[in-house]
Protein 1
Amino acid sequence: MALYTRENLPELLAGLADRPLRVFLLFGERYLCREAMAQLEQALLRDTGGTVHPIDGDQEELGTTLAKLRSFTLLPGRQIYRVTDTRLFHSRQVAKSIWDRAVKSHAEAKAEQAKRGLRAFLASGGLDPAAPDSDPAALSASEWQQCFGFARPDGDLSWTRAYLALDNTDSSTSAPSSDPGDLLTSVLATGIPANNVLILMAEEIDKRKKLFKLLKDEQTVIDLSVETGSGGKAQKEQKAVLQSLIRQTLTEEGKTMAPALIDLLIDRVGFHPVAAIMELRKVTTYLGDRAQVTRDDLDLLVGRTRQEALFELTSALARRDLEQSLAIADRLQENGIHPLAVVATLRNFIRGLLLLRSLIEQAETGFQPTMSAAAFQQACLPRLKEHSQWKKELGGHPFALYMQCKTASGFPLPVLAAWLHHLLAAELRLKGSPVAPDIVLQHLLLTLLSRLPQKRGQPAG
C-alpha cells in the first residue's frame, strides 16, 4: 500500500490499527532494520497481544514458513512470523553488494557476518551454499561472471571456505529451481488468516522482482537503506542517521549531550550504528544520576584503542592518503597518544617496508606484485625465510606478509630510506624544539606524502 522510509516510519506505526496489512518488508542498514522491526512488532501486538516466531532466513525452509502463515492457530492474539535475512529478493543484481559486505566482514574478522554474507552471495547466484561444487574459490572467471554478473576478483579466495564450513547444513539452503517469490505471491492471492502477519528483513534486495512490486503496491515496504561510500553526500546522510539515533538514545536514557560531543562520538566510532549506540549506553550507564555527558566522559570510555588508531595511520600512509593521515594524526593526539609513540609506530612500519622491499628486489625471491597470495606462499615465502637473520620479521601470518610485500613494492628504496631520515628529524624536534607537537606531526606527514613521486616517476630528492 505504500513505501515508507525512516522519516515517516512513525506515521506507519501510529496508523497500524486501521490497516489490515499481512506482510511487511524491511530492507537496508541492518541495525535500523532491527530497531524498526522491534517497533513494528510492539505496535502490532499492543492491542491484541500474541506471539513472535523468529525465523533465520539463512536456514529457512520457505515451504514450512508459508504453511505456518496459512494455518490457523489455537494461540491467542496475533501470530508474527519474522524472517531475518530473507533470500526472497536476492538475485545477480545485488550479488556485488553482498560480496563486498562479506569481504568487509572478513577483513574485520567478523566470522558470523562473513559466513552469512557468503551464503547469501552464493544464493543470489543460484548456487547452493552447502554443495561442494559451489566453492567460490574454485569457480573460473567465466563461471563467476555467469553466476554473479561481475568479474571474478583477483587474488586468492580460499578464505571463503572456512566461513562456508561453519554450521553448514545441506537441506535448508538449497537454491530453488524457480523464483521462491512466486510461492509467497500464490499464498497472498489465496489469503491468510487475519491474525497472521509476515515480517521480512533483508540488507540487499533486487527491486525489479515481481514480489517487491507486489508488496509495495498491496502490502508495506519500509526502506531503511543508507547511502554507502566516502563521498560528501554519503557521509552527510550517514552522519544524519547517527545523530538521530544518538539523540533518540539520549532521550530514552534521560541524558543530554552537546552537539559538538555528538559529532566527536560519531568521528570516533564511524558509521557503525550498533557500535555508536553501545558506546553511548556505556557512557550513560557510567554517568549514574548525572544528566550531562562531558568530553571527559567520552575520552575516558570511548577513546579509540591505541592499537586500532595507530594501525589506521599506517594504513592511510600505505595508501598515500595525505588527507586521511593528517586527520588520523590529529585524532590520535586528541585521544592522548603521545607524538613520540606515533613516530615510533611509523618508524617500525617504514623499517618493515624497507626490509621487505630490499628482499623482494632480489631476483631469486621471485616476487611479483600481481601474483596471488597462494603463489606467494608456495614460491616466495620459503625463499624469504631462508634469510634466518630476519626470522622474527618474517614470522607473521603468510597472508599478512604477502600484503606487506605488495605494499612495499609500491615504494622505491630511496623513498623509504629518506622517510627514515625525516622521522629522525621529527623525533629530534619533538624532544628539543619549542614547536607544538601537532605542527611537527603535520609537517612530517606533509613531507612524507606531498613529495612522494608517482609510481612510474623518479624518487623525490
Protein 2
Amino acid sequence: MSYVPLLKKMDRSDTFLLNSLAQEFKTARPFPHLVMDGMFCDSLLNEALQAFNLDHINNINVFQNQLQSKRSTSTKSVMPAAIQRYFDIVNGAPFLRLLTRLTGITNLLPDPYLYGGGMHEVAGQGHFQVHTDFRYHPQTYLENRLALLTYLNHDWKPEYGGQLELWQNNPPRPVREIVPRFGRSVLMLQSSDSWHGHPQATQAGHVRRTLITYFYTAPKIKTNRSAQNTTYLSSNRQSTMQIAEIFIRNTIPHFVIDTARWVRHRKRKQNFR
C-alpha cells in the first residue's frame, strides 16, 4: 500500500499533474509554496492522530513567551510508532525524489533527528508570530531549503483561529491564509523572504496539531575530484593484477578513467542490440 498517492505518478508517463504542481510551486506568492489536500492517505494520518499525545513524549519543548506559545518534540524525543512511520516516509529516497520533482531542488537531504520539526501542538490561545525559519542546521550546518507541514485537525473551521499566514514584507501584510484542516499539507521554500506564522491565536478549547519536517542541501564547495572516489591501499598480500589496478586508479587522471568507462558502457549497449 502506498501512503503517498503522488508517488505512483512518478512512475507513469503521464506527468500532467506533477508538471502542474511544479508550476504552481514556482509561481506561488508571496514565495514558492504548495498547499495539497490528500497528499497522504487518511489511514496513515488517522493513526498518527490517535498516537498524538505530547504528555506521553519524552523531552518535549515548551515555548511560552510574547512571540510564540506552543509545545513540540525535540531531537531527543521518541516518537510513537504511527507517527514515526510518517516521518520515515517523508525522509525516504522516493519522497525526496518527489520533492525534487515538485520544487526543482536537487540532492535534498533529510534530518532524521527532526531539528525544529516533529510533533507540534498549539492550544489555549496559542500562537506563533510571523517569522522566517533558521537558515542552517545548528549541528550539521546543512542549508535549510524546504519545510513540510501536515495538519491533523478534523473539522477545523476558520473561526477556530490558527490559520497559517504567508506574508510579504514590503509592505508587511498577509498574502495567503491557510486553514489547518486534517490531511492538508503545505510545502514551503525556506529563504530570507519566507515570512509565515499563525499570529491569530487558536480559540480556547481547540488544539492545533501539526507534523513538521525540514529538508536540506549541502553547502556548495569545491572539492578535489580524488576525494570523491574510493582509495585503495597496496600491500604484499595482493595479487599482481590487484596492485596494477590500484596503481592505475591512483595515477591516471580521472577524466581518462571516466572516458574509458563511458566507451566500455557504450560497447556493452551495442552488443545487446
